[in-house]
Specification:
21% of the residues lie in helices and 28% in strands. It has 135 residues and is an alpha/beta fold. The chain contains three helices and seven strands, in the order E-H-H-E-E-E-E-H-E-E.
C-alpha cells in the first residue's frame, strides 16, 4: 500500500507556468498562490517530470476522508468549469494541487473553513509530457 507524503510537499513549477501565474497575480491578489510561487522550485517546461501537476494537467485524486475519486483539470480562471471538472488555479483545490507529484497529499480549506485533503493518485494528462510546452 502506498503511503501519501504527509510532510510539507515541495512544489515544482515550470518557468512558463510561474511567469503566467505571476502575471495573473498582478491583476488579482491571492495570498496562498503568491506564497506557493515564492517558494516553488522552477524547471524548464521540457524538464518537468511527467508525474508533476502543471497547468492544464488532468489528475485523478482520492479524497482522504471519503475515498471518492475525482478527475480534475487544473486551469486558469477564465477556463474554469467546476461542474465538468475544470478547476481554477485560484480555487483552494487548484492551488492545493499545483506543483505536487503523484502520491503527494494535496490540502486545502473548504468554504466552510474545514480542512480537506486528497491524494494525487494519477496524472492522466500533462501538456509537457505530451510535447506541448506552450499551453
Amino acid at each position: 500500500m502506498h503511503t501519501p507524503n504527509t510532510v510539507r510537499p515541495e512544489r515544482l513549477l515550470t518557468a512558463l507556468d510561474h511567469r503566467r501565474l505571476s502575471k495573473l497575480l498582478e491583476a488579482q491578489s491571492h495570498e496562498t498562490l503568491q506564497a506557493l510561487l515564492d517558494g516553488a522550485d522552477l524547471v524548464d517546461s521540457r524538464q518537468v517530470p511527467p508525474n508533476v501537476v502543471t497547468m492544464y494537467s488532468q489528475v485523478e485524486i482520492v479524497g482522504v476522508q471519503t475515498g471518492r475519486r475525482h478527475r480534475l483539470t487544473l486551469c486558469y480562471p477564465h477556463d474554469a468549469e467546476p461542474s465538468v471538472g475544470f478547476v481554477s488555479v485560484l480555487s483552494p483545490v487548484g492551488t492545493g494541487l499545483l506543483g505536487l507529484s503523484v502520491g503527494s497529499l494535496a490540502r486545502w480549506q473548504t468554504p466552510n473553513r474545514d480542512e480537506a485533503a486528497a491524494e494525487i493518485d494519477a496524472i492522466l494528462f500533462q501538456p509537457e509530457a505530451s510535447g506541448d510546452y506552450t499551453l
